[in-house]
Amino acid sequence: MINLAQKDVKHTLGKFLVTAMGVGMLLGIVLIMIGVYRGMIVDAEVLLDDIDADLWVVQEDTLGPFAEASRIHEDFRDTLRVIDGIQNAEALTFQNIQLPKTPRPVRVVAVGFDPLGTVDPINPERIIQGRGLEKVHYEIVVTDTTGFKPGDTIPLLRHDYKVVGVTHGTVSSGGDPLVYISLKDAQELQFSYSNNRIRNDRVRGIKNSEARMVNTVVAKVKPGYDVNAVAKEIKRFKYKSVYTAAEQKWILTKNLVEKASKQIGMFTGILIIVSTIIIALIIYTMTLEKMKEIAIMKLIGIPNSMIIKMIAQETLLLGFLAFLFANLFSHLIYEKFPKRVVLEIPDAWMLFIVVIIASILASLIGIRKVVKADPSSAIGG
């Protein structure tokens, strides 16, 4: 039996392929946007996984340093260490800073921790050059996207910091590069004031009581102890908010990323609708261009079912080719984006199902036109 769809596509092959490429680019952006969301989830978990703490103790009635301001005294670390069930505890700070660099500064998130302590947020597997922090002053570990290398000097506030190590893949929950400095240096950067401010405060009799503050104290729980029970005990008697690793991950992936996911979802839906409309318009246009031929086919006795099959096959083929171009396009450009984009096979298959459904719906416009075609129009007119 003659395959009408094959012959028709062959007749307009160039136009058909260009259309598939155009729709494919739209669908490729859909895959990229889904990948951006996946990347946000991965970025949100990088630091949590590297620190690998069982408990996050933060300022009372706050969600912690990743969601809102949190300040607690550094010595609460010592209080936490003597609580039954706590194996070790360390204080951490998190702050946004600008690293001076030509032609423009680099925005990063600085993690402050005690290099001599029991918690090291630097995953050794991520170090690609140099080493981690060993001194309590004026050393810094940067991520490779900052452009610095071991041996470079970075001026911050009143001191110069020597780059001793470079990591790869270390980002904050917002996707900004991470750098690591000692807790003492971080406190100076975050809580110290300029000389003029200090002099003014002294005149007013104000002391800088924030110099020994941190943003959170993280802890590991001893084997055999229930993490939730220990957290509940700290909340009850120490008047602090305490989150388990699972709860902290929920705050990041659900509370902070949720709005972004809704926005990405809306754009994704709009692009899919636009792609469906474009496919429908192209098939409708192609159907109009061969109405004379369709009328002749109906006049010589070719059944509607065969002509409808041709339209449906063309639409599905267009959707399938667009899907292939979408994957090719997305994989060619995703690494060019400034933040992490994660492309996963299940997302591609889900898009494939959506494209097939959209193609079937789009074909209905052309099919409707075919069914209403008058065979007598092939004669005269």
UniProtKB/TrEMBL annotation:
Keywords: Cell membrane, Membrane, Transmembrane, Transmembrane helix, Transport. The chain crosses the membrane at residues 12-37, 264-286, 307-329, 349-367. Residues 19-236 form the MacB-like periplasmic core domain. Its main location: membrane. It is found in: Cell membrane. This is ABC transporter permease. Pfam families: FtsX, MacB_PCD. It is a multi-pass membrane protein. GO terms for cellular component: plasma membrane. Coiled coil: none annotated. It comes from the Bacteria. Residues 266-375 form the ABC3 transporter permease C-terminal domain. The keyword Lyase does not apply.
